[in-house]
Request: fold
Amino acid sequence: MNFEENRLRLTIIGGFLGAGKSTWLRHQLFEKTYDQPHVIVNEVASHAVDDTLLEGARCLDVLAGGCVCCDQKEQMIALLHRICNDRSSTQDTPQTRQLVFEMSGVADPGQVLTTIKNDPILNRHIILEEIIVVVDALHGLDQLRTEPLSRRQIEAADQILITKTDNCDEQTLETLLATLRQVNPASEHRASVFGVEKTLPDASSAQPAQLPKLDDLTDEPLLSCSLNLDEFGTNGNSWVSFSVWLSAMLHTHGSQMVRVKGVVRTPGGRLLLQSVRKVMQAPEILPDLPESAEPSSDNTIVLIGRGMNQERIHKSLHHVITKAAN
Amino acid sequence: MCSACGFPPSVGHWTDAGGQTPTERLRIRFARVALLNELLKPLGIGARDLGAQPGIQVFNGMGQTKLCQTLEEAWDQVELFTGTPFDPLTVV
Reply:
């Protein structure tokens, strides 16, 4: 038996000031990429402008006059409570299923996610679909060099969308791509000009730019480590040992682990696990794969963080699984 | 609030997912606490799950016991007992 996932699916759109978040979102609403979304726009300025540009949303709310990860936090929680409450109490009209949250240019998506996760009501009603971070092709590298916030935004991203690629030369774009891959190796990259999808150059041979150490960030690069639970010979019964091991890892090394993502097969079905920094999302139960499906990436977990030693992590999980089998 | 444990109602912790039937969930809880005991034995710490009550009991050799709602809280308690966080990378 599988329960239908009925929580509001949240897409967060982040990115530094002027990166082109609203332009991209406006085009997606025009193209109807999202199914009748409820859009929330956060602006640092007290007078909102972007909301007037966004047509095509089922509903639109504006949080102006501050950033949602600090001074507008309470207002954001109140607004999300209202949306969840309206959605639960509406019987007649079709329910909103998609929430698109365009954050201000100075907000950290990871902080917002932590706020939602720590709220007992929102945690029940909202599930994160993806974090899209928009990067300006022209200024992205400079921002990565000088702004700790810009790096934090990139680190939290599932998808990085590079905008304004028509205004920049190919070499700059390749260096930016290589640098973004170094900062967040697990993210997908796309390019867009005024919301229209463009092709990215192959930057596999490009050298990433050297990023200086910033005050509140370590200069250690992010490394990714994949764990295939089937390789540990548990015959699919790895959930208990894996969950105990991962919870201990997050407890002790959570500050170095930026992202954990993957699908684990459990007795209760396929669970989608994803965390941003220390915060693990409530797992989503995915439908079973049809028998004819291609071999999937189930039971493969990707950990992204600093100071990660793949061999040490493998050994550690292996020891825990061995202890569980005894 | 649960009259057995006094925990306020909350969303289940992610580590409590994985089982759909009550039997599966109970089996997962017992397997988890057995593994915790294996891992914590060298530190002189033990864990119990009574099954009929929610939560994991974490105790040390000094007779101190703490009822933890989630596995995350259990790791916090282990850290309080030992003074250092439990590091899975040091498990041998």
Q: What stands out?
A: DSSP finds two helices and three strands in chain B. Chain B has a mean pLDDT of 90. Strands of chain B lie at 45-48, 56-60, 65-68. Chain B touches chain A through 32 residues (CB under 8 Å).
